[in-house]
Amino acid sequence: MLNDADRRILKVIQAEGRITNQELANRCGLSPSACFDRLKRLREQGYILGFHALLNPTKLDHALLVFIEVLMDRTTGDVFQEFATSVSVMPEILECHMVAGGFDYLIKVRVRDMEAYRAFLVDTLVHMPGVRETRTYAVLDEVKNSASLPL
Q1: What is the DSSP string of 123-150?
Q2: Which of 39, 72, 105, 111 lies at a C-alpha separation of 20 to 30 Å from 130?
Q3: Per-residue model confidence as pLDDT tens digits over 96-127
Q4: Does the model's pTM come out above 0.90?
């Protein structure tokens, strides 16, 4: 069970993952040793999954963000498993979510440009196990992009 001090720690490190333990302790009103122990416990209990750097996709030649609806030809466990296995090894696919509704998966992809996306779609995605139909939504402007959870 999380208490207020745990939530303060999570809120701060979610925004500033490289903060020192001393600064984190100061900002959360804890001693450095108590803060370190709590942080360690939060990692061990699975509240903190890891720390990542946010990279600028445009500077790294991955400016185009695309969302893709994927409709499967069959909705059986083996087809879902084969699709999930294929998705997991594709670096262009940043996220893949099985969803309820009018299609089966929502995929988030980052590529260089529309030409690179077309190649990904034609050469890779439509040949993946079970894929019957796709719908593409190219992002024109990222209005909000956050991985922070409301605490």
Answers
A1: HTGGGSTTEEEEEEEE-S--S----PPP
A2: 111
A3: 999 999 999 999 999 999 999 999 999 999 99
A4: no
